[in-house]
Amino acid sequence: MKSKSSARLNRQTILLLAVNGLIVLSGALSGTFLNVYLWKSKQDYAMIGWFTVAQQLAVGLTFWLAGKWVKEYNKMNALRLGIGLTGLFYLLVLWVGEKAIYYIWPLGILLGIAIGLFWIAFNVVYFEVTDPENRDLFNGWVGLLGSITGIVGPWFSGLLISMLKGDRGYRIIFTTSLIIYALGVVLSFFLKKRKKGGTYAWLEPVKQLKDKGSPWRLMAPGLAAQGIREGVFAFLINLLVFVATKQESKLGQFSLITSAVSLATYWLAGKWFKPAYRSAGMLVGALLLWVVMVPLIWKVNYFTLLLLGIGTAIFMPLYILPMVSSGFDLMGTSDENVEKRVELVVLRELSLMVGRLLGTIIFIIVLSFSKDQSTITVLMLVLGASPILSWICVRRLLKPGKSART
Questions:
Q1: pLDDT tens digits for 350-372?
Q2: CB 3.0 to 4.6 Å from 398: which of 30, 128, 193, 279, for a disulfide?
């Protein structure tokens, strides 16, 4: 068991935050407009959906396979390779240009592998350098940095892309991301080499789900429910903003405003949101995340999408911080679980992947019958209710002292 400490961040947690900040910045610069770049070549929601499916399949499989590397060998090299492969992805997008739409599956798989390698290593290191006392603080800072980069990155990218003709702006932004990923690799060398674990248990996720007393029988479906919303909303909201406005600069403005709001809400959450508030806060957040979608019933335009974006920025910390922190707290409830932290991180990601795939595939299937905006709106309302289901699944784990066994 980890010993308790005051809610403070040390040098290693700050360095890890810096690496995360660079990766999020690069994603804010390029990732925000990646699906728009593909959309401009072919206006097809299903194509973007299959690109997401390819990513998520690769992410889940990479987490499971790379778990052995991260536990038994050098997890920092997995983190660096993940950053490097993400850079390679953008290099290939630059190379194939508008023909990228013909390589949706290989490009999606490559990006998924890169994301999987980075995040399994990051999540394990994150668990090792934080404890239950400072985990909410760390997550608050992650959200804060994400908001800052979300303010600067998309606004700058959207402005540049709109000013330059053709795909020149996209090429400049993708190249900038390559440079930032390189800086992330360099900074990662200042993180201490982490200790190796024991032998990797390939079937530990299955074992946890079979164990009737395991809290993961509650957490796993909660994470899957979280993933249902994430899988679709991660690409759909930005795409809808572009479709509604036809301007990259408007999408950049949208990200600037919503991220500025997130900056404040994540700062407040990191400062004041305590473990004792997790259950009530998560329920309120989940309900209000659905309520802010209601204006879309009347009309989908920049204004209603902006209302959705601002509302999401305000209420997301209430929902997501308890979900993230309580999941990682389960990995520290005993010495046995600490030893299994890599396998539990894999179980966490596989659960999210199942939800993301389910949400995205439902989206693709429904749109194969009807592509009307009203259909998309109804889908958003249905899939957007999944955070409430997530709270129902994990509410027993959010109570202090109730995370060890169900």
A1: 999 999 999 999 999 999 998 89
A2: 279
